[in-house]
Amino acid sequence: MYSALNLRPYLNATPGNDSYWFLAVGYFNIILSSFVPKCVDISSTFWLRAQSAKEQSTRAAKSPMVVSRSRLLARQRSRQARIWAKEDDEKERGSWLAPVATSPSLPKPNRAPSIALIGLSLLGNLDGMYQHANFPEIKLHTLTTGSRQRPGGMLLFGYTFAGKLWVSLGYDENGFDQGVVQKFWANCLSAIDNLL
């Protein structure tokens, strides 16, 4: 899983950085086994992996390299975003040319050993941000999350709002065979009902 990390606590307080309406996010990966051992019950496996995910998230958040690593990745994403934007503009104008194939004598680069299967966004307790008591005439009862989804991707949101746990799943409808996401989501909801 890949996840996002709020970088605001690591930034110096400067004018303009006190708003919730700017993006200050870093990313990290959570690595879990993709199989369930037959010799252990599901509940034990679930809680062991939940503990592992929590430990990995804590290590990422407390790493002394979190700010410098996030800056480096932001520069890389910025360069890549410009390349993609230029390609999109050229495709729209009809002037885009596919990259020239590399020489067959050069070895093909190895694929990464694994890729993130799903994004995980643990937004925390949003009741701390939405001060319900300050607006007694307005009853906030739900919150709709939204994200830009990468092709073939899934993003699982978890947060508390209005005193309830909320879990939602966003995914690329065209990125999966029919029924795959629905089965995954049904199993997620079953695990939440049975294990939480």
Feature tags:
single chain, 196 residues, alpha/beta, 2 domains, five-stranded mixed β-sheet, 3 helices, 5 strands
Description:
The protein folds into two domains: 1-117, no CATH class; 119-196, no CATH class. With 196 residues, the chain is of the alpha/beta class. The protein has helices spanning 42-62, 66-93, 180-195; strands at 2-6, 25-29, 119-125, 154-161, 164-171. It contains three helices and five strands; from the N terminus they run ββααβββα. A five-stranded mixed β-sheet has the order 2-1-3-4-5. The protein is globular. Strand 4 (154-161) and strand 5 form a beta hairpin.
Write the layout of secondary structure elements.
Blueprint: E1 2-6, E2 25-29, H1 42-62, H2 66-93, E3 119-125, E4 154-161, E5 164-171, H3 180-195
Parallel strand pairs: 1-3, 3-4
Antiparallel strand pairs: 1-2, 4-5
Rg on CA atoms, Å: 21 Å
Task: State the helix count.
Answer: 3
The SSE string, one letter per element, is EEHHEEEH
Report the sheet-strand fraction.
15-25%
Classify the secondary structure makeup into a structural class: alpha/beta
Helical content (DSSP H or I, runs of 4+): 25-40%
Short overview:
With 196 residues, the protein is an alpha/beta fold. The chain has three helices and five strands, in the order E-E-H-H-E-E-E-H.
